[in-house]
Amino acid sequence: MTQLSPPSVRSDPQPFDPAAVCRLTRELAPQIASLPRLSCVVEQFLQHVGRDTASTVDIAAALSLDPVLHGWVLRQANSGFCKLNRPVVSIAEACVVLGLGTVTRLVYAACTRDLLQRRLHCYRYLGNGFWLHGLAVGLAAKHLVELLGTRAPLGAESAQVAGLLHDVGKLLLDERLPRAKGPREITVAEEIALAGFDHAMGSAAVAATWSLPDDLVVAMATHHGEHPAGGGCVLALADRLVGHWGVGGATYPRLDREPPLEDLLTLGHPLVLAEPQISRWCRELPPLFEGLAQMVQAIGHGTPPALPPGAPAPAPSSRASSHRSQHRSQRPSRRSSPRVRTRGRGRG
Ligand SMILES: [Fe+2]
Ligand SMILES: [Fe+2]
Asked: What's the pTM value of the predicted model, to 2 decimals?
């Protein structure tokens, strides 16, 4: 096990400090260098896909940089669920068949497989839960930013990438923290006391090393802060709700659980979020999570998923409905679902 750094003098999350991120980036450089890099497609997505004028041409140009992802998207577009009466041979056509949202979700899931498909020793996630949690927080953050419109502190794609990677610092800490008998919940205060930094700062150090935009670095660094800056608020809200619903958590997700409105209103105060907006966000998220776990499982096994998350692609109605009913039958029933322990703020 890596030698632990001296304990920090503070045990509570600190406000954003750019100098601290720089120091941590230098200190953790060898460990960060050993992490699988994101595909260069993500960089392109951050530049193009978040624009109002983003088009299938932008996505096709980005995907042309990564033949593996390019192949994934085409295979998905030609998979059973989406098959038309002719093969889909171009990314532009795949974007039309699958929808832009599904293509971006597929790309983000595929390009983080090596990075996030990990079984952590010191944190509680079920199976591919760590990966799933990042994808869900990314989707929730992106949707919140879209609802906020011009008041949003982050672009939609930035929010999705920030959410996807917001906990990546846990990968660094998992190698440094003492291993208990089994995975457990480790608080931010414990992380700081044991390793000298928390996972939010670790995530920011990774993002800074990878030259992700500054607003993403700040958002990741502050997502557990008492006063999250800019996009940190968006991530804190998304993390709280996804954790509450147990997506990627230690047991089955419960998207039917009443959202923790009071907490969300408090967290959303800096964004001037009123209850109707938060309620709408909570109401519109579960359909976006539909199929996400199956997609992660399929990509984890190296096969294109049969059912893409989000809006279904055009397909013969009988086939689509039979697939949907099959999917519904795989979901745990509300009555039989085990209860999910609510995670407190500062742990997700
Ligand atoms: Fe976190
Ligand atoms: Fe989290």
From this structure: 0.81
